[in-house]
Amino acid sequence: MSLEFAEPTEFQLIDEVLDLDTGQPIKAVAFIARELRAVMQDRAMIVSRLNKDLENPWLVCPYCMAAVYLVSSVDRKFFFRHRHEDENCPKKSGPGLSQEVINALKYNGAKESLAHQRTKELVRQSLLADSRFSTPQVEKVWRGMDRKKWRKPDVQTAWNDRRFAFEIQLSTTYLSIVVERRDFYQAEGGHLVWIFQDFDPQRTPRAEEDVFFNNNTNVFVANASTLQRSRETGKFTLECWYTIPVLVAGPILDEWHRADVSIDELTLDLERQRVFFFDYDAERARLNDELAEQGLEALRQTFECFWERYGGMSSTESIRTKWGELRDKFKPYGLALPEHYTEPPFNGIVSLMLSAKHGRPIGYGHQRLIQVANTAFDHYKPFLLPFGWALQTYGHNAVLDEQDTKGTWKKRRKMIREQIKAKDPSYERNTNYDALIAFLLPQIKRKLLRTENDKDQE
Cα separations (Å) of 336 from 297, 318, 341, 346? Predict the structure, then answer.
């Protein structure tokens, strides 16, 4: 499926919110009109912060400073609402029952449905099929360390010194209920597993999204088939729906998959209160890095093409224009290029390092790589170490050995090593251009970032 983006309602009564963490105002539309996954996760975070400390909310109304939360309308669009109305606020909404009261009434009523009772029994029977679990308890009170706080999960049990609370996801399972239970069980060291009665990835109500977008996009279903599987294998088994992010001609798209999974195949992440089969977040982060690297590689090639053609030439108005355009492309990556590409020592360093990378003179009028190496020795001693790393990493030392017919470079290489080891100040590495060198020659980036102790061992 393609990435889905959240939509704001056409009219935003609270058109701006204040981020108390940063002190910055945020336009409501800008906050909402992002990838749906991120909005749903932030929506849960807003409620979680309110539940933990009402006096220190994340987002507030800038007009009355009352805490706000993100609401989904019947047509699946979002808007902000005050948690508690201030009569003097110009952005207050109309009277009526609070949303918390409405949610609780509908949720408690739905818990009495036959479908809910049936799913709860499926979970209980499936747990009984796995002798590693303690006897599952249904609708029993789970008291917190603070005896005044408690919950009554649909089913609770224990396995390998881990406590589990299973809650049946209902169409009326509102975000406040999801977050309250998640935070409670997490504080008590218990794993919360939301169980769906069924799941259709093509039709996901907002109540379902509040659950799975905050559980690494993993959904668990209990049905007659998973009960049979649990009994056959002696392992508690659930149906799992999960998304795998994939790169398709540039953008990242999500593909839904399903599998029957046992408890042994799940990752129990108490720190983030997640139970999952497939680690969507880790794979998405890897693909984001891959996309970023693709962008960097394209920029790297653009830079090298410029340098191949103009690096050794005098500046002209036409070339200066091209350089200015290239500088602009670098700015989003935090790499500041000098105003003039002919500026020393920038020009020499770039030519030096690109020559070492490609095994031939680039940016110089030389004919052979050995001439570049001698230029490095004569004029760029503070850059000899990364120059040597590049020659070795990109496999061009043999080129120098072949061209070093008089043995001059062999003697100089020995001298360089001795002087660096002796900490000769004229050979002390200049690190001012490390970011640029790391960009142009990514394979020596780790060497550039090594500690002083590592460097001493060169």
Answer: 17, 21, 12, 12
Nearest to 178 by CA among 211, 155, 203: 211
Residue 409 CA to its chain's centroid (Å): 47
Distance between CA atoms of 395 and 389, rounded to whole angstroms?
Answer: 10
Q: Point out which residues pair with 25 in neighbouring strands.
A: 18
Q: Where are the beta strands (DSSP E) in 266-327?
A: 267-269, 274-276
Structure tokens, 365: 């009028």
According to DSSP, residue 102 is labeled: H
Residue at 266: amino acid letter: L
Structure-token match 């001795």, residue found: 418
Contacts of residue 384, defined as CB under 8 A and 6 or more positions apart, other chains included, come to 376, 377, 416, 420, 427
Q: Which two tokens stand for residue 286?
A: 């890897």
What is the pLDDT at residue 112? 55
What is the H or E stretch that residue 147 is in? none
Per-residue pLDDT, 94: 55
Phi, psi of 212, rounded to the nearest 5 degrees: -80, -25
pLDDT value of position 295: 86
**End-to-end CA, the chain:** 51
Task: Give residue 284's pLDDT.
Answer: 94
pLDDT at 255: 95
Segments of the chain scoring below 70 in pLDDT: 1-2, 93-113, 171-173, 250, 451-458
3-state helix/strand/coil string of 41-88? HHHHHHHHHHHHCCCCCCEECCCCCCEEEEEECCCCCEEEEECCCCCC
CB 172 within 8 A of CB 110: yes
Q: Give the CA-trace dihedral at 219, 224, 225, 229, to 10 degrees.
A: 100
Sign of the Cα torsion 349, 350, 355, 358 reads: positive
Residue 429, pLDDT score: 94
Q: How many CB atoms lie within 10 A of CB 114?
A: 7
Q: What is the DSSP letter of 235?
A: S
- pLDDT at residue 92 in the model: 74
Helices 317-330/280-310 angle, 10° precision = 170
Convert the pLDDT of each residue in 86-111 to its tens digit.
777 887 765 444 555 545 545 554 55
Coil, strand or helix: which one is 328?
Answer: helix
Q: What is the pTM of this model?
A: 0.69
Residue ranges of domains in the chain, CATH in brackets: 1-84 (no CATH), 104-278 (3.40.1350), 288-456 (no CATH)
At residue 447, the pLDDT reads: 92
pLDDT at 104: 55
